[in-house]
Amino acid sequence: MSGLCGGSDHAEDSVEESSDSTEIEAISATCPEHFVILLGAPGIYDPEDPSHDQTWWNFFVLIQVAFIEKLVVKRKSECIDWYVYGTAYEKRWEDDKKSGRETQINDAKKYKKGYLYRIQEWINEQEGHNFYNFSNKSQFLDALKNLNPGTLTRIWFSGHASRKGLWLDLEHNASHEAVNSPDKILSGSEIAAAIEGKVKKVPGISSKLYGCSTSETAKTISKKDLIVEGAKNKIHFGYIVADDIGDGKVEGNHLQRIENGTIGGVSPEWTKHGK
């Protein structure tokens, strides 16, 4: 993947792909525990699909503000490992820049170095947080396999999903329906196989999969000694309202609103799996 410069000629402003096994193994060796975050990405904005990706930042802000508001707290021995599907964030930024749509153009202008650069910038500012930019699902699965045995405490996901698994991004067909291809969907069985022997069971903490219809995926992953939560039905990322990325201006507990908030009167049926 090419670096992301966003109007700057300086090499330090680029976002390089950073999920090679050597780097991951080096980090793994120094971290007694790993809290893995898989950050899915938006698709290209489609005006004919008002239900998806009106903004680029929903998935990132969900977890970012959870840390800011201390709705999730890092254990002293944990490294927070963010795996970001950077390809789609780069594509979204490039499309927003040339879109002709005021809202999207304003977003692109505000983050002149790109959406992916902004995500990396915030993560790098947080003590104990690591940023990995990956471009295909095999890289993420390999990263899990490269963790030291007994070091994975939890996995969080924020992004698009379906009963088939966790989506890295979203595409649209000719009818403007949300679709995706198998090479960009992580099934529960694929993740479960990758974390075989890697889990450290810690009482009182849960893995959480924030996406629509993630409950079956959560159930499959929970068989590897993790407590994993997910939704049986759709969830509504519209319960996140942030004035600015990184300001933490989200009223109340947005995680509870997403887990319990209805869509058209239908509950997401947020469910916990595992013991």
Could you characterize what this model shows?
This protein has 275 residues and is an alpha/beta fold. The protein has one domain. Helices cover 31% and strands 19% of the residues. The protein contains 9 helices and 12 strands. It has helices at residues 21-30, 58-68, 86-97, 102-110, 115-125, 137-145, 188-194, 215-222, 254-260; strands at residues 33-39, 78-85, 129-134, 152-158, 161-162, 165-167, 171-172, 178-179, 185-186, 207-210, 228-231, 270-273. The strands form 3 sheets. The protein has a 7-stranded mixed beta sheet with strand order 3-2-1-4-10-11-12, sandwiched between helices. The protein has a 3-stranded antiparallel beta sheet with strand order 5-6-9. 44% of the residues are buried. Residues 1-14 and 243-248 have low confidence and may be disordered.
Descriptive terms for the model:
single chain; 275 residues; alpha/beta; 7-stranded mixed beta sheet; 3-stranded antiparallel beta sheet; disordered N terminus
Radius of gyration in whole Å, from Cα? 18 Å
Q: N- to C-terminal separation?
A: 40 Å
Overall 3D shape:
globular
- The number of domains is 1
Low-confidence stretches: 1-14, 243-248
What order do the helices and strands follow? HEHEHHHEHEEEEEEHEHEHE
Let me know the number of strands: 12
For the sheet with most strands, the description reads:
7 strands, mixed
For the biggest β-sheet, the strand order reads 3-2-1-4-10-11-12
What level of helicity do the residues show?
Answer: 25-40%
Average pLDDT for all residues: 86
Number of helices: 9
Q: Structural class, please?
A: alpha/beta
Strand residue content:
15-25%
